[in-house]
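Today's session is about reading a structure prediction critically. Students often jump straight to the picture, but the first step is always the sequence itself: look for stretches that repeat, for charged clusters, for runs of hydrophobic residues. Only then move on to the predicted structure, which in these notes is written as discrete structure tokens rather than atom positions. Here is the chain we will use throughout the hour.
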Amino acid sequence: MFKALEFKNQKKQILRGVVFGGKEKKGIIFVHGFERKSCEKKFKNIIDEIKGKYYSFLFDFSGSGLSDGDFEDFTVQKLSKELKIATEIFKKKFKINEISFIAHSLGCAIVVKFLENNIGFKNSKIVFFAPALNQKELQKYWFVKSKFKEKEITWNNFKEYIDSNTINEFDKYIQIEEREIKEHIISNQYFLENVNVDYQDILKSLKIDFKNMLIIHGLNDDKVPIQSNYDLTEKIKTLVIKEGDHDLEKPSVVRKYIKDLVEFLKKV
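Below is the predicted structure for this chain, in token form.
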């Protein structure tokens, strides 16, 4: 059984999602990433596996999926506020006692920002898929990959291509007030917000019990290489999927982590 759920964000824009019912008053909120939607296959795989045991809430951030609003003013700070509203409504409407978060890519940074401003949830169970936390390095990595498309750029060698000219170009790039990306128009707010931010540092400052966290990362992820999270993967249980890409949705890949993920959610 599921119910559609609409609510308003801090700008009074309508966000839309769906809640799957559960037997226990425990809830999971699924947090999608940059230019993504809540109806991702990896999220549905988890809901199918828990078979109605927990309440599950999937919603689209403003400007994404079925939700209203503009993608243009996308920032981690803005979406962390939307996550707060979503969490409060989910808890109240369905009388949820405990909340867990499952996030993908930049959605992981949104969860960290949410936790920074809402410390009452710092003991929640958290699952991160391919977390794009090290934004200050990832932005440069993505820029270098786009600039030197004829080269084989990896996380291990991208800094070799950064010189004063490249840095100057990068600085100009993030200052562009508006640009077209895959599906949307976006302003420079997101880039300027995160150019010097590593959300690993924020997460560590919150003094979270890392036993409550699980990272799932593909070794073939060239969008957010696993090495970018070097500060966390040594401290948090990390399932490294050898054949895994950034999406982690191929059936053969899902089979390598789904049972461990569900067992992690069951543990008190």
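Discussion point for the tutorial: Residues 211 and 236 are 7 Å apart (CA to CA).
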